[in-house]
Amino acid sequence: MATHSDQIPKDFVLEILAKLPVKSLKRFSCVHKSWLNLFENSNFKSMYYENLKSKTTHSLSLLLWRYFDDERSDGDVYENDVHLLSGERYENIVTLDLPSLFEENGFYRVLDCVNGIICHYEEEGLDVKIGLWNPKTDQHKIIPLGITDDEPGFDRQVSIHGFGYDNVNDDYKVIQCVYYIHGQTFVEEPVLTIWQIYSLKCNCWKKLHLEMTKKEHIYNASIAYLNGVCHWWGSEHATNGLEEEQVLVSFNLSTETFQTTSIVWLQKNVDRPIRSLVVLNKSVTLISSFAKNNCIEISILGEIGVKESWVKLFTLEPFSSKFSPMRMGHKCDLIFIGNHNSELASFDVITRKIIHNINIKTSIFKKPLYLWNLMIRDSTNNGFYIETLNIYTSMVSHTGGHGNTFTYPLLLKACANLDSMIHGTMIHGHILRLGFQDDLFVQTALVGMYAKCTYVECARHVFDGMAHRSVVSWNSMISAYSRGFFMDAAFSLLKDMWVLGFEPSSPTFVLILSGCSDSDLDSFSFWWQGMSIHYCLIKLGLVYSQVTLANALMGMYVHFSQMEEARKIFDLMDEKSIISWTTIMGGYVKVGHVAEAYNLFNQMQHQSTGIDFIVFLILISGCIQVGDLLLASSVQAFVLKYGCDKEESIENLLITKYAKCSDLASARRIFDLIIKKSIFSWTSMIAGDAHSDHPLEALHLFRRLVRTDFRPDGPIVATVISLC
């Protein structure tokens, strides 16, 4: 008797599958290996592209924003242009007269265009004004300024992160972040970030209580809006605590919550690409441009929050000239790519052909210095440090000139983050040749650069040569000593700072306390000096009102296993962040009080802080440490509840946990379910088999490991040798 599946023609099944969205296609690929092979088949891909083409509309418009010098005038008059392009190949060009936000025309940017409404903004000093403009009705609204309170000891910056339509509440919203840094050098990461959202319906801003990761800075070429969700690029600390993991941040405008999606292949690629986000066929699409081979990869996200759902559509062959992704609005059939000379090219995702020389007037534009500085700043804040240096090289070659005292601190930050002393000393040479070595901001940036590259003596040499110093300068030098674990020198510098009449700011104390916490030396003198700082902070009334400072102080006590003092600070804090909770819980696990850490976890669930996988890492490792496997099983239930079971570090710990209970079947089940196994996954499973008296299984796994791209490390080789 024929089954139902036998009655369905194979061609009909293929036609149905070829019309599925990427998300569904990704799920079906896990059903059976033959289906996965089908989806990789070239004929099926061609069918899928044809369906993609049939859904694509050619009645699209493209928003292009650019700047140029007006050659019609006698002098150097620099203008901004916004063009609306339409037509099958964008041959129809209409110049839009975008209203100004300030009394004097400044340099504006177009953030996005949603439902025909253009969101743009201008910067003037520390102020950022945002406007919404409907070109069809010529209605224009200037959004009131956000909440931008000044914080003592910090410099303030505002970053606009997205604009979109909340279809649930019928409202247009804008997201921005106000972040505070240790000075205008941009060498240090933001210490404090305040997220805000604007509602057009109520015409007001409100603060968002979000535990966003550390570096959600964006570049204007790296945002996308789709179906009530704003997407941008960010980075967060990877599970090993050393690297930064590239992530897509997706903010839901109706629920006002966010999710992150890891970009796995970017972590493994040493050639850090320039990235652009666009919307293709109702999917968030990533364009990655790699500098070394000048190739471009195009990938589609199937499901937000699921890193395995990225689907790489294709890779474009190297171009004859260098092209970079350039965000210019929502597109379906065409993706536009441009280089620094404003040359444009288009890519047809259906025919997979490059069309060069689009009929738009885009000759090489002469830019004034402040525009070059703006490009350098955006690239640096977005983490494209190699691109920052390339822009500087282009600036020098095109203009024959050099930067100013605003340019070089940004370049030094790029060198510091690249850990490149070669480029850093080259920039230092330019500074000396141009005579900027006596500028306060430049000198402070030099100290920060040498500090981050661990050249403490060079940092001190620059610091000692400063005729005038600011609190930020002192903080940069103290940071250099703290990073290098020269805590005696850091405390000595703090005393000198006081003696010379400089009042330490909150960042000063955070740097000192963080140095004590990170140091490998459990020195009694460090603990005593940390206690004296605590006493000083109590007198200044700063301990419990500032979250970052309280976390640093609590971390210092946790480092020295002084849990009673750490708990006092935790209980008296006015506001607790997720770092506050993980710090105190990690402290209890460190001293073996896992039950108390679990009690804190139960309290944490009733707070609005949010819970991430770091909490479960702490709890599970603590349970394994003390051998409380029953409690570990309870924690595992919460891991599943909060959807953290697919985190690699959690999976590895669960393998270790089951192996310790001699439940190798459960350990193997988790191991087999890991789609992309890391060397740590293999090590955990092999060690589990070895320690549970299953030498043959351990050797079999080791043979499988050798056939992969991973290279076995010392501990795993020693484990295998002991079995022979």
Alpha-carbon Rg, integer: 28 Å
Distance between the termini: 55 Å
Helix content: 40-55%
Topology, number of strands: 23
Strand content: 15-25%
Sheet having the most strands: 4 strands, antiparallel
Structural classification = alpha+beta
Count up the helices: 27
Query: Overall 3D geometry?
Result: globular
The order of strands across the largest sheet is: 4-5-6-7
Low-confidence runs of at least 5 consecutive residues: 1-6, 56-60, 67-79, 213-221, 237-243, 327-333, 361-365
Would you tell me the overall average pLDDT? Answer: 74
Keywords:
27 helices; four-stranded antiparallel β-sheet; globular; 724 residues; alpha+beta
What features would you describe in this structure?
The chain is an alpha+beta fold and 724 residues long. It has a domain at 4-55. Helices cover 43% and strands 22% of the residues. The strands form six sheets. The protein has a four-stranded antiparallel beta sheet, with no helix packed on it. A four-stranded antiparallel beta sheet has the order 8-9-10-11, with no helix packed on it. A hairpin with a 2-residue loop joins strand 4 and strand 5 (117-124). The chain starts with a helix and ends with a helix. 38% of the residues are buried. The model is unreliable at 1-6, 56-60, 67-79, 213-221, 237-243, 327-333 and 361-365 (pLDDT under 50).
